[in-house]
Amino acid sequence: MTIDIRAEPTARETEFASLYAQVQQFYADQLQLLDAHDAERWAETFTEDAVFEIPALSEPVRGRDGLISTLRRNQEHQQRDGARLRRWIGMLDVRPQLDGTLHTRCSALVYMTPHGGESKVLHVCAMEDVLVRSRSTWRTRHRRVTRDDLA
């Protein structure tokens, strides 16, 4: 079996690798803001008219103000319960579109750590986004999260 290994990647491969790294960094920053309950800065990673669909809510959250309210409400629940949530994503797929947007899909795990307890996986999800370029960074215009246990 022969493996074709080129000494230099093509310009297109290099450009995509750079884009992929940007998207990974975007999600690392965005999810750390979410886990830290930094509502305003987290909401800034979305467009003004963003739509956020998540199974825990009966209707999509719309706009940054809605995102901020939702995150603050979640923070209050976690503080009452004494639990800490953290998110992890992997298996990231990035698909550039002709209009300049990016369609992404990844697996997302939500871990819960009760006060004084051991961490456990709370939810296994798929997260699908439409990302748009805005002021030299990416922003989420639309997010749809589905949970495996509700599929």
Characterization of the model:
The chain has helices at 11-35, 39-43, 63-81, and strands at residues 46-53, 61-62, 83-96, 102-114, 120-134, 137-147. With 151 residues, it is an alpha+beta fold. It has one domain: Nuclear Transport Factor 2, Chain: A (Roll). Strands 2-1-6-5-4-3 form a 6-stranded mixed sheet, with helices on one face. A hairpin with a 7-residue loop joins strand 1 and strand 2. The chain is globular and about 55 Å long.
Shape: globular
- Rounded to an integer in angstroms, the radius of gyration calculated over CA atoms is 17 Å
CATH C-level class is Alpha Beta
Q: Please give the number of β-strands.
A: 6
Return the CATH architecture: Roll
Q: Helix content range of the residues, please?
A: 25-40%
Q: Give me the oligomer status.
A: single chain
Order of helices and strands: HHEEHEEEE
Number of domains: 1
Helix vs. strand class: alpha+beta
The neighbouring-strand order within the major sheet is 2-1-6-5-4-3
Report the sheet-strand fraction: 35-45%
Give average pLDDT, whole number.
93
Q: What is the terminal separation in angstroms?
A: 41 Å
Poorly predicted regions are: none
Q: How many helices?
A: 3
Instruction: Enter the CATH topology name.
Output: Nuclear Transport Factor 2, Chain: A
Q: Characterize the largest beta sheet: strand count, sense, and whether it forms a barrel.
A: 6 strands, mixed
Pfam families: SnoaL_4
Keywords: Plasmid
Organism: Streptomyces lunaelactis
Protein name: Hydroxylacyl-CoA dehydrogenase
